Amino acid sequence: MGDVMSQHLRRQPSGKSAFSMRGCACGCGDTLSLTSGGLSRRSVLAGVAGAAAAAVTGLGSGFGGSRAFAQAASQKSYRIDVHHHLSPPTYIQAVVENHLGSPPQIKWTPEKSLADMDAAGIQVSMLSVTQPGVNFTSGETARKLCRESNEYAAKLISDHPGRFGSFAMIPLTDTEGALKEIEYALDKLKLDGIGLLTSYHDKWLGHPSFLPVMEELNRRKCVVYTHPTTADCCVNLLKTEPPTLVEWGTDTTRTIGDIVFSGNAQKFRDIKWIFSHAGGTMPFLIERFIGQPKIDPQFKPAVPDGALAELTRFYYDTAQTANKASMSALTAIIPTSQILFGTDFPYRTGIDHVKGLRSCGLFSDAQLNDIERGNAVKLLPRLST
Fold it and tell me: For the domain 18-384, what is the CATH superfamily, name and number?
């Protein structure tokens, strides 16, 4: 069996990981080697093998409850949460009228956000409207809903100095409307970036119809935060599984693959992508991402330096993945410099994630500081003040 894969990242003091693979041409791996922080291959694999059980234990106990966690939460607020949802009043009205939305989304208030932030030592939360965004409407209605939501976010930033930032919502499938809202949100409202869903009905973020918007985001060197949703292909697949359970992580992975293998990652190198939930299932499918251009040469032009070179430039948040299993997989291939603190409030709490990142036992104090603040400040320098 020939060696068709070889990718390496050396661990540096910044927290970069080493990763190498060998696999067969059919895409199945015959060996897997991970090295992390000087640990032997055997010890790392043993840790990963037991990670699921540890994660379940951590989830069941609220990610621990030691004195260290309580002390961390009581420290002066410094954390930056890049995955924090708001629900503007007009947006709540729209989703309720369309029989959409969940109780946490509909019952959200700014006061609830601030209370959760204070409890977890979070200084700034980057606000975004969660799914379904404006996927349930179109035309002028979608434009108006985006505008009102972005203006509401801007008012919260003004009313609570130093506590909020925002990723603006745009009607991506409406190219003219999207370009107008980008201009308004970034130039007039001075919001911090753009928030997109991972898919829009039957199109993911590498689709050619989105190229004019991607060109503008690249020209502006935009930070683009993404949040999963349920694509048209995959609604109500299983009665036993809501889309939050499996589909959203999968849709995140689909859009990462679409951005990479459409060539958009290579072409639009000044877009700074943030992917939710530790990149969905991408870390577990890394061997296939790396191997695809070698198995099928038509994919090579999209990734001249290899798929891993693109994946390690992206950013990934910790929302609902602050556990040993998820973080072990992510940090095996992604440097710590690309990991951002995220909480998914109001669906989870900030303190859940503060505790989870510490109880997983993977990060030094310096790395935790980078994840919880330093990396976000480098990405969004406005937040340093």
Answer: Metal-dependent hydrolases (3.20.20.140)
